[in-house]
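Incident review: delayed structure delivery

Summary: a single-chain prediction request sat in the queue longer than the usual turnaround. Root cause was a stuck worker, restarted by the on-call engineer. No data loss occurred. The affected request and its eventual output are reproduced below so the record is complete for anyone auditing the incident later.

Affected input:
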Amino acid sequence: MRYLIVVPDGAGDEPIAKLEGRTPLQTANMPCANGLAKLGLVGMVKTIPEGIAPGSDAANLSVMGYDPAKFLTGRSPLEAASIGIEMLDTDVAFRVNLITLTGDGEYEDMRITDHSSGDISTEEADRLIKAVQDKFGNEKIKFYTGVSYRHCMIVKDGETSYDLTPPHDVLTRRAGDYLPKGEGSEFITRMMKESYELLKNHPVNIERMNKGLNPANTIWIWGQGKKPALTSFYDKYKIRGTAISAVDLIKGIALCAGLNSVDVAGATGTLHTNFEGKTKAAINEFEAGKDFVYLHLEAPDECSHQGDLDGKIKSLEIIDEKVIKPLVEYFRSIDEDFRVLIVPDHRTPLALRTHTSDPVPFVLYNSKGQGIVNQANSFDEVSGAKGMYFDSGFSLANYFFAR
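Output delivered after worker restart:
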């Protein structure tokens, strides 16, 4: 038996007036996913436990079979694992975004207009993070380059009690209303504010502005946590697998769980990622003997954060055409039993441009048959509400992997 989980990140949404009350999933042309829905199990799953913020860290842990209430220690430590940072038990990792602030006057009065600095390239970002490290790095604090706008700061003997806000949750809002809070957080605020003076006229940003691109003119620090300790995925399910994603967080979860992680050239985590390359990498992993691939696709989520309705619909259609369809065709060509689970990690409604904890729809297809009469026939929120309900992502994972 081969197992495939496809995660169209943030695909879940709410009815949209411009779509005559439909959601992007209802609107997108997804014949392969909907074809699996007609033959498989459709339902809803609550991937975010009560009392836990609807971050991609909690959501993807849940979908991969881990209870976030037990295993979540923070987002950034998982990303640090992906970068290859060896953390001590007393270290604290922080996510460092390169973001765009706009406006005049004091830092506090500027607006957070782009959490990704126009999806800045990793090469450009590396030059900026090196400048940040040269300015603020010392024996206690060190900055590491990640991918695109997503980077990491490690603080030795650090604290985790600060109140830090993800920038994608507060787009268009005044920066000063969301600066770090909590005892001892002043050093984070100082670095963020001083980074603006450091970066606003950096050659990388001068070049970007000359091209009409958003500058990465400040760092924004959040997502703190300590070294994670996940149960081995193989010990849980007796299955050997691989995760494929452009996002360090997903790679970090995979590595901490003992899964393989594959980097794909041209994988960006945006609408312009290398979808075909990810599909080919998944097939290569199955050909190499892996039982399971966790294929994460960030594009719908990024489009939601940007408020890009057309892009979100397009990303879903591309995922169906260039990822789900060829992988299902591959499974059928090798004449081997397989299971496919298509499930967003969380909702990212375009109206809010941030994550919510509401349940998301899923499709579970088993080539050997479901054993359950299907009550719905498409991959979307309305059909999902008519089907089977799971109160946690990890209970859905347990169901999916049950022998």
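Verification: The chain has a mean pLDDT of 94.
Action items: add queue-age alerting; document worker restart procedure.
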